[in-house]
């Protein structure tokens, strides 16, 4: 069998089809959020929230929750709202607060999983949660439905509130001064980020989630300077890298999460060189 | 100045257009929408030995955990590590084919039964068997009824 015949054979498996659908939706959502996050200098919040999600996953495992997304998502939403709506009057500033919650949640989660052992393969469970080796390919029907609904909701919210997200990204103070409720939209962005992080954990794992959010946005911004163009390009890059990464990992048995991120890095390098070339020529 | 701006705009679009075009071509070559592809659930036998480690692990996980009833009656050929354990009441030995994913951090085992002599534990084996359902103390379980076993 040549590569395409093998791929066509694998694509007949329902779990591969479901993984591609959920992977594409998740990558699309992550890319849409990536541009506002990078522009607001909140790139690291993806990392912090994904570690909090790992802590939530550990709690769900210990209490034997069938679907851990029902605990991970609300917990991540609460922490995201707490982090992003504290403003400049907070005693512990944004980056320090993210660092504290990030490492604290990671340590807490690993401590729980080792102390209250519910699995015979703790190392495997931790590895899968942190790096997402095959979790996207082992989705249950309930997972697929929930992920798809949440992803469609995120995309719908982004489209409906696009102008407000644009305004709060570039000048939240001006937005407040003109009478618009910038705090409410910052909370909305926080909730959406938390939902996307919870979904992205299944695709690339906790440690690599921020790559899914940041790399497509950074790649797009090498070439495109307008917000709309950067968002569209970021979405296209993210979907391409997710699909390509998943297909490569299926064909050659590489870890899914790491392969997707490696593809993101390669595309970033390509766009970086492309951007430099375009700026020199024009 | 306007010509420069237009040229700049066209150049910026070029990578995106190329990316979309290449992706579209790859998708067309992979999916071949003009051909009809069969449904994997209609296949009576599956050879896991020719698949990548990720696919084997995920397939066995789907077979054992997600949709075992859909695989009953299918002939499965797979390879992995042989493990055995003693469990249940009354205790009896259970034999497993253990398959790991690409990162070797996750493993999935599928129980099997074999009429002839079992190999040494921890040996790599390749087996061909029929996936079947069985009842024990009111509970439903699934296992492979092995036709052929090769020690690698």
What report would you give on this structure?
The complex is a heterodimer of chains A (282) and B (152). With 282 residues, chain A is mainly alpha-helical. Chain A has one domain: Orthogonal Bundle (ABC transporter involved in vitamin B12 uptake, BtuC), CATH 1.10.3470.10. Chain A contains 13 helices and no strands. In chain A, helix 3 runs antiparallel to helix 4, helix 4 (69-84) packs across helix 10 and helix 11 crosses helix 12. The longest helix of chain A is centred in the first third of the chain and has 26 residues, at 14-39. Chain A is globular and about 55 Å long. The mean pLDDT of chain A is 83. With 152 residues, chain B is α/β, with parallel strands linked by helices. Chain B has 2 domains: 1-37; 40-151, OB fold (Dihydrolipoamide Acetyltransferase, E2P). Helices cover 32% and strands 38% of the residues of chain B. Chain B contains 3 helices and 6 strands. Chain B has helices spanning 2-31, 53-66, 68-71; strands at residues 45-47, 75-87, 92-100, 107-113, 124-136, 139-151. Chain B has a 5-stranded mixed β-barrel with strand order 2-3-4-6-5. In chain B, a hairpin with a 4-residue loop joins strand 2 (75-87) and strand 3 (92-100).
Report the order of strands and helices of chain B: HEHHEEEEE
Biggest beta sheet attributes of chain A: none
- What is the CATH architecture descriptor of chain A? Orthogonal Bundle
- Helices of chain A, by number, come to 13
Number of domains of chain B: 2
Largest interface: A-B, 47 and 38 residues
Indicate the topology:
The complex is a heterodimer of chains A (282) and B (152).
Chain A: H1 3-10, H2 14-39, H3 45-62, H4 69-84, H5 94-115, H6 122-131, H7 141-160, H8 162-170, H9 172-177, H10 182-204, H11 209-223, H12 227-252, H13 256-281
Helix pairs in contact in A: 2-7, 2-10, 2-11, 2-12, 3-4, 3-5, 3-10, 4-10, 7-10, 11-12, 11-13, 12-13
Chain B: H1 2-31, E1 45-47, H2 53-66, H3 68-71, E2 75-87, E3 92-100, E4 107-113, E5 124-136, E6 139-151
């Amino acid at each position: 069998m040549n590569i395409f015949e093998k791929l066509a054979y694998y694509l007949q498996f329902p779990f591969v089809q479901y993984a591609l659908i959920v992977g594409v939706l998740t990558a699309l959502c992550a890319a849409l959020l990536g541009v506002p996050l990078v522009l607001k200098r909140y790139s690291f919040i993806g990392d912090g929230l994904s570690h909090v999600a790992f802590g939530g996953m550990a709690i769900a495992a210990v209490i034997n929750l069938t679907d851990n997304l029902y605990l991970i998502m609300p917990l991540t939403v609460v922490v995201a709202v707490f982090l992003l709506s504290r403003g400049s009057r907070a005693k512990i500033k944004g980056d320090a607060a993210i660092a504290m919650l990030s490492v604290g949640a990671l340590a807490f989660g690993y401590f729980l999983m080792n102390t209250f052992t519910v699995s015979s393969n703790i190392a495997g469970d931790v590895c899968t949660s942190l790096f997402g080796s095959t979790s996207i390919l082992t989705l249950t029907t309930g997972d697929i439905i929930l992920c798809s609904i949440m992803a469609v909701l995120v995309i719908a919210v982004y489209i409906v509130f696009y102008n407000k997200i644009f305004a709060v990204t570039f000048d939240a103070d001006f937005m407040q001064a003109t009478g618009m409720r910038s705090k409410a939209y910052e909370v909305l962005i926080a909730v959406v980020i938390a939902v996307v992080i919870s979904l992205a954990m299944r695709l690339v794992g906790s440690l690599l989630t921020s790559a899914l959010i940041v790399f497509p946005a950074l790649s797009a911004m090498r070439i495109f300077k307008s917000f709309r163009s950067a968002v569209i390009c970021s979405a296209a890059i993210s979907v391409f890298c997710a699909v390509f990464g998943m297909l490569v990992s299926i064909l050659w048995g590489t870890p899914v999460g790491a392969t997707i991120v490696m593809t993101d890095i390669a595309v970033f390098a390509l766009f970086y060189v492309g951007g430099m070339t375009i700026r020199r020529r024009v | 100045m306007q010509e420069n701006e237009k040229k700049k705009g066209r150049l910026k679009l070029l990578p995106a257009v190329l990316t979309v075009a290449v992706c579209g071509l790859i998708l067309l070559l992979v999916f071949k929408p003009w051909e009809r592809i069969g449904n994997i659930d209609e296949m009576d036998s599956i050879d896991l030995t020719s698949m990548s480690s990720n696919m084997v692990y995920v397939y066995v996980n789907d077979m054992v955990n997600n949709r075992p009833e859909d695989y009953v009656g299918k002939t499965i050929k797979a390879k992995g590590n042989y493990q055995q354990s003693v469990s249940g009441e009354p205790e009896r030995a259970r034999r497993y084919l253990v398959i790991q994913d690409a990162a070797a951090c996750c493993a999935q085992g599928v129980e099997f039964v074999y009429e002839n002599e079992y190999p040494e534990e921890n040996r790599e084996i390749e087996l061909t068997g029929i996936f079947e359902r069985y009842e024990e103390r009111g509970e439903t379980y699934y296992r492979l009824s092995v036709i052929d076993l090769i020690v690698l």
